Amino acid sequence: MADETALAAVVTAFAAGSGPVAVDAERASGYRYGQRAYLIQLRRAGAGTALIDPIACPDLAPLGAALADTEWVVHAATQDLPCLAEVGMRPARLFDTELAGRIAGFARVGLGPMTENVLGYSLAKEHSAVDWSTRPLPEPWLRYAALDVEVLVELRDALEQELEGQGKLGWALEEFAAIAAAPRPAPRVDPWRRTSGLHKVRRRRQLAAVRELWQSRDQAAQDRDVSPGRVLSDAAIVNAALAMPTSWQTLQAVQGFGPRVHRRQLEQWIAAIERARAIPEPQLPPAAAPHDGPPPPRAWAEKDPVAAARLSGARAAISELAEAHRLPPENLITPELVRRVSWDPPTEPTAPAVAGALRALGARQWQVELVAGAIATAFTTAREAAQ
């Protein structure tokens, strides 16, 4: 579906459908700049399956409004919801089949393995890494994309029964509600610090070179609408920052550049390095990213041994609980919340006090009920051992 007339027909059909709506989106990660959707797939009982081209129809707010009161079934919702929101589609209620699989204790939670393990169907995945920005999309790709939503509602129903049988359905519903209600994430501070291999860069001026090269690459990628890694690899950025070459000829000798790189591009990267070289010392980026949370756990033993003992005890208790309940520790409670409450615990580490601290940090009620007592015990043990 790639025109407004067809979109209007889809809106009418899906508004008149019944039951949950299966939703999926295909991006062009690794090919195009950003994470926009290049294909959106929908399926609902009474409406059938629709494949929508969001490039030809960039405003899907009418469709989003038609499905406002409908439960969405999505696999790995946090991956797809941002690009769906960009075109005006936001769920009020959802069921995430990937997260349901995690909570139910499945070891492999990709859509293919989940469909095979739960429903006994094998999904073809040969087109999972194709360039979905291709136009026109080949017919085999479209058939592949349609299959992803064909099974989602059936998978949802089977997982709901599984969770109900394990006594975990309430946990999953709390998690789904939190995902649906979550605000859009704020832009990342200093995104250049996510450059792979940055740990090799120790000096602040070299960090400035990474930043300048990253920003120059990002702008070039945005201008060309290609993935940044296709403009320049992270490894090349780090190698250039470590070498700090002074001319395009010496840059050409750095691994990741070489004779195939055009002189004009080499001059662009040298200009970025020169900008880093010209930054006054006080304005160089700090060695570590600024943050408002606790220090890295590896530094706790030196900075605050009792806090390190609290964290160690809390982690052990959570691992034991997670194993007992057959779900990953990070789904039982977010590791960042454990670090924060371990670094800055309540004055009296009672279970109610720890529960209040966890709720204030954003933990869900089911998580608090399961872990607060165990964490409080770990904190008490650490304090007694220090006395």
Automatic annotation (TrEMBL):
Entry superkingdom: Bacteria
InterPro entries: 3'-5'_exonuclease_dom, Exo_C, HRDC-like_sf, HRDC_dom, HRDC_dom_sf, RNase_D-like, RNaseH-like_sf, RNaseH_sf
Domain HRDC: 203-283
Compositionally skewed regions (Pro residues) per UniProt: 282-298
Spans annotated as Disordered: 282-301
SMART domains the record matches: 35EXOc (SM00474), HRDC (SM00341)
Entry protein name: Ribonuclease D
